[in-house]
Design goal:
2 copies of one chain form a homodimer. By secondary structure, chain A is of the alpha/beta class. Chain A contains 13 helices and 12 strands. Chain A has helices at 8-11, 22-29, 48-57, 70-80, 92-104, 119-127, 144-154, 174-183, 239-244, 256-267, 269-292, 313-325, 349-365, and strands at residues 35-36, 87-90, 110-114, 131-135, 158-162, 189-193, 215-220, 233-236, 296-297, 304-308, 328-329, 341-345. The N and C termini of chain A lie far apart (51 Å).
Chain lengths: 366, 366
């Protein structure tokens, strides 16, 4: 007997895995990584106050989380000086991107992104049978003019832009993003992924009225707040757009411990400033290691550094595999010409030392 | 300026909230509940070993969870004596039901459930423009014959059945469920929601080959394992069906702390047995309180009890509101004739005493 058929859209999809997790790689390799610096996780960790709050909440995990994430939305509203009606909390930006695509995209609708940008967004677009149009990066940055031109050409419903960018770490001035809004075609939404915004210089943060209906901004506790494993992200924008998520989201999808941790993390802006300082030092350290090894670190406004190997994608892929085999987990961009780089997450000194020691060994072996 | 239009299906949906959380009610009432016994949460709590495991993991929350939930799936496979390829882990049964509906249902496809059964399933069916057909309960139980007849009549793609049932606490013998499979129309899947199965008698658990392509079973750590706030559920069935989830799920959607907690909870079957005993005692206590107040507790194979008020839905609704006003959170079935009942979660002695004290006061006032 065969299983019942999938619906037509899922039936047409491959069983994509946007990212292979380090645990899977470890099982394949047969040992654990010594330096886990591939997923842009924040090894400087969450605020100790957030850790304590999560510990204290463990006993209460028999209770569902508040499905409205009321307290966290209130705190975010105060932090951003907006209203809680502008904010939806979800299971990381990944989860929110999936909901947004579902909310906006009918089969055949055009969506624009950059070739080499976030694969999970592309996964969601494919998952709802949207038609993805990609424009190339330009000078290792996403290309706002090309994105807008492609959106107008295709009548796109969504344009995705990460600022700062992943996987390159590059960024645009906020004014550039603001100008993009005026270029968008009608009935199109700019998806501004600001996962790394807390690491960016102030001028990279656009000033946009929160009820501007042309943009939705997504942020997360996974990166600067060091809570990737808690799955707490949020989106903010026009209240009618935000209210739309109530039609499609998994209302009881949030972890109670994650909510409590995020609340405590947000309240500890001192820790955030401390982490930001640590990340800036680690970026310099990665750049130093790159230079020592005849490579070049691209400028970064994130907690990772794209290191230009000066060679091609094949070389970079062998380098990534070589590092993995020595216990160093890094990743790299998926498409040329970005894939001449490897992407290294900023981490505490222990991991940086392992990198400094391992990288020349692997390069020599190659 | 208006916001960009939603896609046609979400545009047609109301901003449904399947359940109003107790936190929202508390904010409306202006005080906290003294007895939180309305959401079938398990106040006997998670295994102390699970609590400890979650506490110990809090510091590691900077790492994403393993997107394959490998260790938890392996442990579940051992526990159920099946293969990990038969199992997908997700953000609670709520999340998995949404993914399953997305995987199976195209707009206009027929889906069958019972009138008064789980609203969140209905929410997901509406969310993907499935057409829901409902059959009435029969003697306060879901009606397998009627479900199958309706499925055959409508050419349904999915039939939903919870065994034991929520909101009535009733159950069918496993053999009845097994027989349903032979009655299903072709190309149709039975969604067997076993959220409460650990509280049920052995004979309520059907014996079905794990690769039977006609059924998918869903279970959770939210109820008997006392971890509702951790959002860890799982589905198991034919490996091709389970593999289908890879096409649509949020791969990095699981909380790391939840995974670790679930693993420890599963390993502590002694605690599960202890909780089961406590729940059985609490069921008897609820029945006793019901009797003392001239009402009647329906038999239950779950951690809640449907208490028949002997009156109608209007009365039961006033009773629920009256209890809320006195600090006792309970819920009730949504449709007649089930709505003559109120639904009370089994809880420790403190909550049971509050109930015993409050219920006669509210009844007198009514």
């Amino acid at each position: 007997m065969k299983i019942p058929e999938f619906a037509p859209i899922p039936a047409s999809l491959p069983a994509t895995v946007p990212f292979v997790g380090p645990e899977t790689l470890q099982r394949q390799l047969g040992f654990d990584f010594v330096a886990r610096i591939g997923a842009n996780e924040n090894g400087f960790g969450p605020s100790p106050k957030a850790v304590q709050a999560m510990r204290d909440e463990a006993q209460q995990v028999w209770q569902y989380a508040d499905p409205t994430s009321h307290d966290l939305r209130q705190a975010l509203a105060r932090h951003l000086q907006i209203s809680s009606e502008n904010i939806v909390v979800g299971e990381g930006i990944d989860g929110l991107l999936g909901l947004l695509v579902r909310l906006m995209i009918a089969p055949g609708d055009a969506v624009v992104t950059s070739d080499g940008a976030y694969p999970t967004f592309n996964y969601h677009v494919a998952g709802f049978a949207g038609v993805l149009h990609k424009v190339p990066y330009r000078d290792d940055r996403e290309d706002p003019d090309a994105l807008i031109a492609k959106a107008r050409e295709t009548g796109a419903r969504l344009v995705y832009l990460a600022n700062p960018d992943n996987p390159m770490g590059s960024w645009h001035a906020g004014a550039v993003i603001e100008a993009m809004l005026d270029g968008l075609p009608g009935n199109c939404l700019l998806v501004l992924d600001e996962a790394y915004v807390e690491f960016a210089p102030d001028e990279a943060v656009p000033q946009i009225a929160v009820d501007d209906p042309r943009v939705i901004r997504m942020r997360t506790f996974s990166k600067a707040y060091g809570m990737a494993g808690a799955r707490v992200g949020y989106a903010y924008g026009h209240p009618q757009l935000i209210a739309g998520f109530e039609r499609v989201r998994n209302h009881f999808g949030m972890s109670r411990i994650g909510q409590v941790g995020a609340l405590a993390a947000l309240a500890d802006q001192e820790w955030l400033a401390h982490v930001r300082g640590q990340v800036i030092s680690a970026r310099a350290k990665v750049a130093e290691i790159a230079t020592e090894n005849g490579m070049f670190a691209l400028p970064s406004a994130t907690n990772f550094v794209a290191v230009d190997t000066g060679r091609d994608g094949d070389f970079a892929r062998r380098l990534v595999k070589g590092l993995e085999a020595k216990g160093v987990f890094v990743r790299m961009p998926g498409v040329a010409p970005l894939d001449r780089c490897i992407r290294i997450s900023c981490a505490p000194q222990t991991e940086m030392s392992v990198l400094a020691e391992t990288l020349p060994q692997v390069l020599t072996a190659l």
